[in-house]
Each structure stands twice: as C-alpha cells, then as structure tokens.
Fold this sequence. Notes:
This protein has 400 residues and is of the alpha/beta class. The chain folds into 2 domains: 5-43 and 286-398, Alpha-Beta Complex (Aspartate Aminotransferase, domain 1), CATH 3.90.1150.10; 62-282, Type I PLP-dependent aspartate aminotransferase-like (Major domain) (Aspartate Aminotransferase, domain 2), CATH 3.40.640. It contains 13 helices and 14 strands. It has helices at residues 15-26, 46-57, 70-84, 101-110, 125-133, 154-162, 183-195, 252-265, 271-282, 285-307, 328-334, 339-350, 381-398, and strands at residues 33-34, 93-96, 116-120, 137-141, 143-146, 149-152, 167-170, 199-203, 228-233, 246-249, 322-323, 352-353, 355-356, 372-375. A 7-stranded mixed beta sheet has the order 2-10-9-8-7-3-4, with helices on both faces. Helix 7 (183-195) links the parallel strand 7 and strand 8 (199-203). The relative contact order is 0.17.
Amino acid sequence: MKIAKRMNLLGSETAFAVSAEAAKLGATGKKIFPFHLGDINLSTPKSVIEAAKKAINDGKTGYCAAPGISELREALAKDVGNSRGLSYDIDNVSVQPGGKPSIGKYIAAMMEKGDSVLYPNPGYPIYESQIEFYKGIALPYGYVNTSEGLKLDFRAIEKGIEKGAKHIFYNNYNNPTGASSSNEEIEKLAKLVIDNDMFLISDDAYFDTLYDGKPKSIASIPGMYERTLTMYTFSKKFAMTGWRLGASIGPKNIIEQINRLNVNMESCTTHFVQYAGLAGLNAPEKETQDILDILKIRRDRLVEILNGINGIEAHSPEAGFYVFPKITNLLERTGYNDVEEFRKSVLNETGVSFCGRHHFGRPLENESDYYIRLAFSGINIEDLEEGMALFREWIEKSTK
C-alpha cells in the first residue's frame, strides 16, 4: 500500500524520540535523569480527579456538543477574559483534546496553500510541521541573546512580513527557550500585526505558570482582540498532561470554523474530562499554587547549578518548565563540535537526558551559538541534584 506523499511533509515532536531513547537505556538498568520531556511528575489536583470520577459515575461518558460543554466554555470565557482584561462569551470558545489541536485546526481553516506563516524557531516543532503539512511556506524567526535573556528577532519578523506573511505564531514564555517579552516588545509586535493586516496565534501554554508577577497577553493590546486566537491548555497549570484538554479562544468567525473541524476530526473532546477541567477552573488557588511552588524550587536550583559550571550560561525563565543554557564554550572545552553527539555521550555515560536546540526546529543560518534544553517539570529535586552532579563530574573528566 502506497503512503500518501503529503506524509513526507509532516514533522514530529522529537523530544518524544529522546524520551524513547532514554527509556531504552533505562531498560538496561541504568538510572535515567529525565530532563528531556516537559511532562509533570506532580499529581493532578484532587478536586479535578474527584470531578472526573463523579462525571463518570453520573454517566458523562457519551457524546457531547462538538464545541464543548456549555459550562466549561462559559468558565473558560470568564477565566481567560478576566486574566487578560478582555470580554469573551461562550461563542468565543472551542474546547479541544489538548492544547496542540488548535495549531493544525487554525492552519487548516485559515491558511491557503502557498501562504507564508511566521513561527518561532527555536520553538514548538509542531508549528513548522503543520504549516508545511498543509503546504504553507514556513518562515522562521529566532531570538537575539541579550544580558536580559533571549529577545524576539524583529529583523527576521519584518523580513517575513516583506515576503507576504499574514499569519504569525507567537509563544510568549517560550518553549524551549523560556524567553518572555517585555511590554515594549509585545507592543512592537502588535503594531506590526495591526499595520500589516495580519492575524496572530498566541500559544499561551505557559501563561498560567508564571512564577512572579502578572502574565502578559498580546490579545490585551488595543486592536489585537479581533486579530488573536489564544491557545489554552490545562496540561501545565493543572498537571493534566495526559488528560488531553485545551481550548481555542478568539473571534467567533474563526471559532465557528474550528468547531466544524471538531466535528470532522474527533466529534467532541472526552465528555467527563471536560467536567474535570471545569473543576480545575473553580478549584481553590492553593491547589495550583502548590504545583508552581515546587516547580520554582526546581527552577532556581537548576539555574544555580548550571551557572556554576564553567562554559555554561543559563538565564532563569519567568515562566514554564525549561532552562535553555548556552553551551558554546562548554562544547569547546569538552572537544565536541556537534550538540547531538554531545547529548548522546552525556546520556549514555551519565543517564542525564536532555534535548538539543535542534529538536525545536531546523537551526537557522545565522546561528553561531549552541544550546540545550533541560526540563525540570518531571524530575524531583533530589534526582535533579544527583543528575547535575554526574553531569558536572562528566564534564570535568571530559575537559581538554
């Protein structure tokens, strides 16, 4: 049976390939220190779990409306709107089986074949994959390394606009870099979108995992409400990665098209899981704050350890689960000129598993530095410290 040619255009989330590699090594008896995948080894809040049980016992196990149950859509409209200073109603919300489906559904509904689409690179690899699968032209924009962390490369964004891009994916509190935008940066991006009659997809996966202060949304900028589709997920804030629950929130005419795709692709998001999400939105703040408090301890310790290793430069992310240290000098010290070779050596010899920059989009032509990504959401503090001690020891033994 011949496989359709379009499948050659489909990429993957290669962090899962690293996970499989680590699991295979772990099966031999070697202890693995899992810094590779942004999963969470913390429990889903009890109120969420109990709500799912109740929903199952109450018979919420059949089909429901394709856009999602009304109670959850109303709660999401209120929660997302209030946190961004905006007004949404039920018709602005389409419930999804995870955060990821919003990417492909937006592209399928709004992008014509041959359209140019800007996306962050390094960034979540599914942007690039879905753009190319639907035969769009994927135009990457990167980041500029500054003393305050990585910042948007506006020169690349402006070049993409000159090439005709009318869609742009934007991931504040970025995966994998941890980069976050200042108010000035958000306003500058919004002006470009408005002035060039563009539409923006705001991937807000880590909007609710900010460790200090108040999160910022580009949808809140005047003129952006009608030009922004917000991608929402329950995976991060509520430690619900495996539950597969998210939403698209934005202009009603786009949500209508996404709802049509819901019908064609999955009929509806799992009925009883939606009641679990509803319970999360109504749960005491302490339940989610406890998750953030544990993650913050891990973040601070990991950044401290990394910056204590000669040849590594690590910024502390304001939100999310990832540290994205520059290792250019470290590679030189240890005699490596390839991040993938370096990564595999560390994994096989120490059990410390992480991803390279190349797992998050094709490296750009102007890149001269090397980076790795370490997730701290799936490893407890004791194993984090043990793994980093082995990493440091390996580096010292490998230094020329």
